[in-house]
Amino acid sequence: MKVLVYSSFTFSYLNRARVLYQTLRRFHPDWETVALITDEPPPGFTFDPASEPIDRVVWAKDLGIEPFRGWLFRHDVVEVCTAVKGPFLHQVCEAGEADIAIYLDPDTALFAPLDPLVEMLGEADILLTPHLIDPNDDRAAILDNDLSASRTGIFNLGFVAIRTTGEGARFARWWNDRLLAFCYDDIPSGLFVDQKWCDHVPALFDRVKVIRDPGYNVASWNLSTRKVAIDKAGEIRVNGATLRFWHFTKLGPTGDVMTKRYAGDNFEVYEIWRWYKEAVAAATDPAIPERWWAYGQFDDGAPIAKPQRVLYRERADLQAAFPDPFAGGYQAWWKAEGPGRRG
Amino acid sequence: MGQGDAPERTGRTLAAAFDPVFYRTVYDDIALTGADPFGHYVQTGWREGRDPAPWFSVRAYLDRYPEALGLDPFAHYLQGGWRRGFEPSPSVHRDGFLERVGGRPRPGISEGAASPRRPDSDLPAGVGRAQARELAAAAFDPAFYLSMNPDVAAEGLDPLDHYLQTGWREGRDPSPEFSAADYLEVNSDGAVTGVNPFLHWLAAGRTEGRPLRFELGFRGRIVAGLTPLADRMEAASRSALAIQSRPARELAPLLAEGRRRDLHLTFSHDDAFQSMGGLQLCIQTESAELARRGIDHLHVFPPVPWPTLRPEGHHAPIGVVWNGRTLGQFSVLDVSAALSARRGRGRLTFAIHSLLGHEAGETLDLLSAAGARRGLFWVHDFTGLCAGYHLMRDEAQDCGAPSAGSAACRICLFGPGRDLHLSAHRRLFEALDLTLVAPSQAALDTWSAAPDAPVPAAMWVHPHARLVPTGRFAEAGEGPLTVAFLGMPSAYKGWPVFTDLAHQLRDDPRYRFVRLGSAAAPGSPADHIDVSVTADNPHAMRLALETAGVDVAVLWSLCRETFSFAAYEAAAAGAAILTGPDSGNVAAFTRAGGHGLVLPDEAALFAQFESGAVRHLSRASRRPELCDIAYSGMSVDLLEALS
Questions:
Q1: pLDDT tens figures, A209-255
Q2: How many CB atoms sit inside 10 A of residue B32's CB?
Q3: What angle do CA B618, B624, B630 make, to 5 degrees?
Q4: Is B39 within 8 Å of A147 when comparing Cβ atoms?
Q5: Reported pTM
Q6: Nearest chain A Cα to B408, which residue?
Q7: E strands along B566-605, which residues?
Q8: Residues of A in contact with B186 (CB under 8 A)
Q9: Mind listing the pLDDT tens digit for each residue in B302-331?
Q10: ipTM rounded to 2 decimals
Q11: What 3-state DSSP class applies to B558?
């Protein structure tokens, strides 16, 4: 049974991804680990995949999406890093590169083996983890967590696992198609990147299993209904189940506030975060500027504003006129005729 | 939040001035996605030219002050721009925002705002300047403010004026009880934004029932304050670099004793004759017993304290105490040479009390030079199993010494040091003929049960002391139940649990809380009784307990005590012991001797006091027999058996 695990990120998330891959290597040295990168290394940083805990690097520009730069420009960093997940998964299925493919966000980390997923994929072809597996009763928690999930998607797409055949392959093709055309953070239009689409999965596909085990995908958004304990045998348990992986979303003050709000005096949660912060710090290369993204700027170095991307993706005439919008043409047009023109 | 935590404080100052209602109102996508407005602004918003408040235009600021290019203009302004007279312009969205909120912006934020420094912008709704000063004056702590802000003291400014005018914006706190950073963090719903948080708390927050901070519990606070092990080791390593070895000739006393004499060599983590604690008392006792028998005593220790063993290959001088006299620090080679020169003059024995700060290879070199292979290894703590020698995972909870590969060890602060300690001790146990000596069966059981424990040649239990009944019985006291904490007010001894209990029951006439120790604990809710236990006065604690008529000793050790003199002292003085399940020999001793209660958790402890059930443990109810404590001769008792 060949298992492939991939994550999608830019170089500013390499530190988190390194921690994820280190934990994957620890528990599953025989699983193939793939880094799907939509970025280019920053000047002064040498990226040597051989010295990373990664088996294979796939560059988004090599996924065969045409025209790549025009397509890329329509997305901000979060949109594009989620959009490429579909095409890669579809290509894995098409190529028959693995029996099982698992996606994990770069800010997740394993605490125990994921072997039960392989067992689950004996009965199911598609595995998803919902944001919530228990309802909240507290009003603040409903506002923070339940309604947020209602807006952005029932399932958290920091994780998905499929069989690369059958319904799993059919899902991958469908996800690929949707994400190539509609992977935007546009909630009024019913879109939230790759995630909101997956609300349809239980309706569109058979052999779907919703993982309701509290040890998977623990994050600040579900801590209000999950209690973490560490026993004397050294096992970390969440509502009594073995902690499999944690999703360290929003590393920084914002994440800290949400964690404190819902963990309260469950100090084991802070122990897990303490470890993660130390591990990420140790995996951080100072040569990578904070928030680096090679495609966050025009070729002349000017930052690309979100409205510039949005307008480009909405207007086929601009896409036709400026097939490479990173080059100067679109930028000049924006200044002269776009909504950003002065005066 | 620590005063020195500058980046964190800067972030909080920014958060205080940021207007999430404005941001959410004028940027529809923020409201629709439910994104955290402040987080969005800090991460991407300012780069996208979004404005953080109605009175601040990011673009206008950058146009006017190009030096802020590449920086968050709002942060630039708040962190110093305003001091230099930089003037922000209102956001282009200001008027639209005012219209959308009905032309009546929230107090203190948007009304005609061009600058955050306009009059009364920092005051809560409905509170005038004079009333605000009056409110603040009642709760402001000027002495605290001046001590935390020497710049204010140096300029001779009125501390309250300074705080109200500029200090609060700079993230300075008005009293030890109020942390603006904590208040803003827990009240991040926007209500406090732009307003002096202290005034908000006084005028509105406290009546609205707003929390002052997130209640993480003391264990959460411990975890939040941990320093990475690597940083601790680095600090020790730097300190060790400054240590210069003394010339070998100063080791002459080791060699000068021309007559044939036996020599006993001990290892521990410090100069046991210059500091005081349970382990130090043991070594002093051992030394005194050796002197009585005419045996020389050489004690070696790391001159600077180390949090762990020294890593393999990390060489440093070692401190030397010769028959109770500190000689200074010397190179390991010189001490080895001196020991080698003594070979054959008498029998050499050794006892390892702690290897913290020692390097295993050097320890083996010393013993090899001395010609010693058979010795004692004491389990005063669990340094032999982990760098976290109290077996306290992240210094917050007993871990039970699980497998080094467990999830708990991998996330623990001490995880990276576990392999160092296990491998170094295994090396010693394999190279030497070590008999493991535990001062209690409980300690021996913990060692034996640890899956990765080094295997000794033999294992013995040898208690440091025993109770000797006197035939006298405790006087039945009158008044409230006297409840005591003994010794160091440290977390792993359960001080936070005791203080929580004492705080909660501070005004309860049924109880009196006391702490017996060598120095008063700052902020203690218990009466202080000064006690110093020394080698010359080892019974000081027992006598003080007896004199104070202590009914109950709360020995709520969070870590596995390998012996606990405090438990023996409490029982000998007629005090009942209350302890928890993870306290090692305190629980075992209490159970075995019927000295008190072993409770399942902290809730059960508090319940004992709330219900009053604990009063059954009063001296009057129990009439306990008083005891003396007979101390062992430590390793010296075992030397015959060893040979």
A1: 999 999 999 999 999 999 999 999 999 999 999 999 999 998 888 88
A2: 16
A3: 130
A4: no
A5: 0.85
A6: A234
A7: 576-579, 596-598
A8: 260-261
A9: 999 999 999 999 999 999 999 999 999 999
A10: 0.93
A11: coil
